[in-house]
Design brief:
Blueprint (H helix, E strand, L loop, with lengths): L12 H31 L2 H28 L2 H24 L5 H29 L5 H29 L2 H20 L14 H13 L2 H16 L1 H16 L2 H22 L7 H20 L4 H29 L5 H13 L2 H15 L1 H19 L3 H5 L19 H8 L5
């Protein structure tokens, strides 16, 4: 069967394996998010659920930079295999505790600490592995396909998880999640990638410093990651904390809020399809323009706009997120040396999530002081202003699409073993 040009990455065996592994594990994780919440509420209350979620998220933030270093030191597919095995064990043990009636808050929280800590290694390894399994000319459609897979899983996973919880018990959904991680690990183990240590004899601190130098030497990279951090501070806390309140008091209730989120998800699916085809000569300019509607969505919520206007902007914003995500990841994978991509990815992730808890802590008290509508207008206005300000940075405006010729950095594989170096540096082993 002839594969369309937009789905060209599927012609490459390594990408097919990675795509299948990512799809099945993401589906299981989305399903487990619903199951875990109801599982904790069987023996605890909302405060206990908050502690369990915090137990999962804190290790992710704390270990993320270390995860980037080790994902650049070790074969990335083996890091991902190990991560899937450990996450599967954590979810499987949680299911066993629930099925046997032995579950307690400390035990479930501890297993989620393991889960979150392992995620800190899996995320950077995954971002660094993709350029090794697909040709560079196919990076954007590859990222778009993975984004489409994630969007689909985010819709279907929670729905099926809710069905399993209602028909059986939350433990069974967590058990299925454990099996999806096992399947993902098997698929990733089938990747024929180099197995040798990349930089034997170097210290973790030296690797971290080298990654930091790679990061700070690119003003466009520092600027965009900083804007992501401020975006997390101003957008998601305002939208997800104050948005439901506005929907309840001004837009007709939970149905209105569900419609906004559903339409936004539909926009993400359409955006993923568009990202398979569209290309931008100035990717960072495109990225900033694509995420700009998000700020206007928050502004409309604060301005008392009608539901149809808010959902329309949410649809455009969802599409912009999907296209912008594919553009950003492809830009990183094209512009960053292969030996440093996981560390740069960890800086990117860390910058994106660092201020998120601060935003959630501040948005509630701020709304009590200046009001919900004023808080939404302030957050939306800052979001738009920050995004537009990034366009004034010369290195952001001038960055062109396409790979750059780069000499091997100090952390790249040693030159004497030419065959091994070729395997490590060349996408798809070509």
């Amino acid at each position: 069967m002839r594969i369309p040009a937009e789905l060209g990455p599927l012609r490459e065996r390594r990408f097919r394996l990675l795509f299948a592994a990512r799809t099945v594990s993401t589906f299981g994780s989305q399903m487990a998010n619903v199951a875990l919440a109801f599982a904790v509420l069987e023996f605890g209350g909302p405060a206990d659920l908050g502690l369990v979620i915090m137990a999962r998220e804190v290790p992710l933030v704390v270990l993320l930079l270390l995860g980037g270093v080790w994902s650049d030191r070790l074969p990335r597919h083996l890091v991902l295999v190990s991560a899937d095995v450990l996450r599967g064990v954590a979810q499987g043990l949680t299911a066993i505790l629930l099925l046997t009636g032995s579950a307690s808050l400390p035990a479930v929280a501890l297993l989620q600490v393991v889960y979150g800590g392992v995620n800190a290694f899996g995320r950077p390894a995954y971002q660094g592995l993709l350029p090794q399994v697909v040709k560079r000319g196919r990076l954007q459609p590859a990222n778009a396909m993975l984004g489409l897979s994630g969007s689909t899983a985010s819709i279907a996973g929670p729905a099926i998880g809710a069905i399993i919880v209602a028909a059986a018990a939350p433990a069974w959904a967590l058990a299925v999640d454990a099996l999806t991680f096992a399947a993902s690990a098997i698929l990733l183990a089938m990747l024929d990638m180099p197995r040798a240590m990349r930089v034997p004899g170097r210290s973790v601190i030296a690797d971290f410093r080298e990654g930091w130098q790679e990061f700070t030497s690119r003003t466009w990279l520092v600027a965009v990651v900083a804007s992501f951090s401020l975006f997390q501070l101003t957008f998601f806390p305002a939208l997800l904390v104050l948005g439901p309140f506005v929907a309840k008091t001004e837009l007709g209730g939970a149905g209105a809020w569900g419609a906004i989120l559903a339409v936004q998800s539909a926009g993400s699916l359409l955006g993923g399809l568009v990202a398979l085809r569209v290309r931008f000569s100035r990717p960072l300019v495109a990225l900033l323009l694509l995420v700009l509607p998000a700020g206007f969505q928050v502004l409309l919520l604060g301005a008392g706009a009608p539901l149809w206007a808010i959902t329309a902007v949410a649809f455009v914003g969802g599409g912009g997120f999907a296209i912008g995500g594919a553009v950003w990841l492809s830009t990183l994978q094209e512009k960053i040396p292969e030996h440093a991509i996981s560390r740069i990815s960890s800086f990117d992730w860390f910058g994106s999530v660092a201020l998120n808890p601060v935003g959630y802590a501040l948005i509630g008290p701020l709304s009590e002081v200046i009001g919900v509508d004023a808080s939404l207008l302030l957050a939306g206005g800052l979001n738009v202003a920050i995004t537009v300000a990034m366009l004034a940075i010369p290195s952001v405006r001038s960055l062109r699409a396409g790979p750059e010729a780069m000499a091997p950095g100090p952390g790249s594989p040693a030159a004497p073993d030419a065959a091994a170096a070729q395997l490590v540096r060349t996408p798809a082993g070509e």
